[in-house]
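Lab notebook, bench 4. Still working through the backlog of constructs that have no structural model yet. Next entry is a single chain of 462 residues. Request: give me the structure tokens for it.
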Amino acid sequence: MSGNETKLWGGRFGEDVDSLMEKFNSSINIDKRLCHADIKGSKAYAKAIQRSSLISADELEAITSGLNEVDEEWKKGSFVIQKSDEDIHTANERRLTELIGQQIAGKLHTGRSRNDQVATDVRLWLKDEIKSIKVILARLIQCICDRAHREIAVVMPGYTHMQRAQPIRWSHWLMSYAVAFLRDMEMLNDMYKRVDVLPLGSGALAGNPFNIDREYLAKELDFATISFNSLDATGNRDFISEMLFWSSQFSCHLSRLSEDLILYSTKEFGFVELADKYSTGSSLMPQKKNPDCLELIRGKCGTIIGKAMGFLTTLKGLPSTYNKDLQEDKVPLFETCDMVVAMIEITTGVINTLTINPLNMEAALTKDMLATDLAYYLVRKNVPFRIAHNLSGQVVKKAEEKKCKLNEVSLEELRKISEKFDTDVAEVWNFEHSVEQYKASGGTSKSSVLAQIESVSQCLNH
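Model written out:
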């Protein structure tokens, strides 16, 4: 028997495939991950061709029973992959044929191509993956909200350009990432609509000649709608590139959070300490406690961006419909989703278990961070902001000249700069007073941060 007789496409060829080509062409070690999705799609397709009178009710029962048995083998880990199984579709059909015979199993693929089959399988898999990611992402966001609520009283320096800028609440900093992650969640929800489109019934490229009810297939497989054009449906991988972009954007948010925490955990800052369970040490320096989990998140962000760029490079030169290049879509998709899941779970663990040092945060607050508050003090005395900004800058310069703190510039010297300064200027030099003035929505006052926590929590529950 020719080796090609075991292939789904072997009839046209008179010479066996070279062993190196066989290995090069095979994707089973990657796409076996689609085993359950592939069986789910085949069971629905069997029902559809029975409705079109291409198989009998008894044949449908035999195919369904056989596919259930194949599915159980995958679940139990007893499915044996053969050398001839070049992909998951071949493997499942080969095993089904062994169980129920070729006369019946051979009818399952009627009017169907691996082109529309794999496009369906990947969409089924990705829909489930997105649902799983949403669950753990919501858990991360809620974890941040809970911590922000507990530690609402802690005030710390806020930074721009990596320099101390203005006092903020630690909870305000936490919620800046909760809001970013909530935005990621909204993008994921929007993207799901474009994944939730059924390509099955498109054939290799021209469509299905047996009047298959594609709306019925969509209902059976829980798709919201069907694809409009069979040429586009078999070659479309926009939903994968969009998932890779989403993962790149999301991992950038995780990377920035990690960078902040890496800095805050250094002895130079001392604002936070990671739990031992999320830290590692040095093989040479016994004193070291390294935030490797956060550094790995930062590093994997670059890897994810690279995979997105690589896949887009593959897509950009393809002619229309299906090309074998698209077999490479699952490697970046699967690896990226695995990294995203791990990164979310690690970040949740880090946020849950880290220890903050409010005293170090308070010690890092310096009076020069209240220079803007000094300008606002003058604004409240009817000085135009641009003038107030300039006057406050003069006070900063005076303090630098005298080598003293901003609040140590005397009232007499302040009044030389502006007669608007009075004894009540002493109220400016209070960090709690400073953060509490930012009561507008989105600000760092207690009431505003609590409102942010409430709003984000409500969005998660809707």
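Notes after review: DSSP finds 19 helices and six strands in the chain. The chain has a mean pLDDT of 95. Flag for follow-up if needed.
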